[in-house]
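Model it.
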Amino acid sequence: MSDLNDLKLYGRIVRDAVIKTKNDKQIAYFTIANNKTKKDTNGNYYDEPNFFPVSAYINGEKFSSYLKKGQPLIVEGELKQIIKEVGIDANGKRLFDSRIYIRTKQIHLIFTGKKENSQDFSELANIPENFIIEEDYNNEDFSIDNNMII
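Modeled.
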C-alpha cells in the first residue's frame, strides 16, 4: 500500500521555465515561490518566501510562453526525492546528495488581468485539457539538475 504523497501549492513562477526534451517528450522545469505571512515581535506582518523546484511534462512548446516569471499558478502533484552518491569522505563513509522537487500532475494557470501578466492571451482558448501530459507521468523519471535550484 502506498503512503499519501499528494500536494496542492499556490505560488508564482520565480523565473521563466526551461524546456528540455527527453525521449521526444518536453519537460518544463521551473521554480515557484510560495509565501507564508508571519508576524514579527513588533506586530508587523511580513512574507517569508519558500522556493520549490517543479517539473512537468508539457504538451507543446507554445505552452512554455505561459510559464513565465511572475505567473501565478496552482500546482498539483507529489514530492519526489532523488538521491545520488557523490563520493566517499576521508573516513570511508559514502556521501550522498538528496534533492526534493514537485513532480506535477496538473497545473492551473491563474490570470489576474494585472499589468504583470501583460501577455497576449488570445491563444488561451486553445489550451487543451492535456496541457500536462498525465499519461506520461508514471512512465519514467526525470530529474532536477543544478540549473533548476536557486
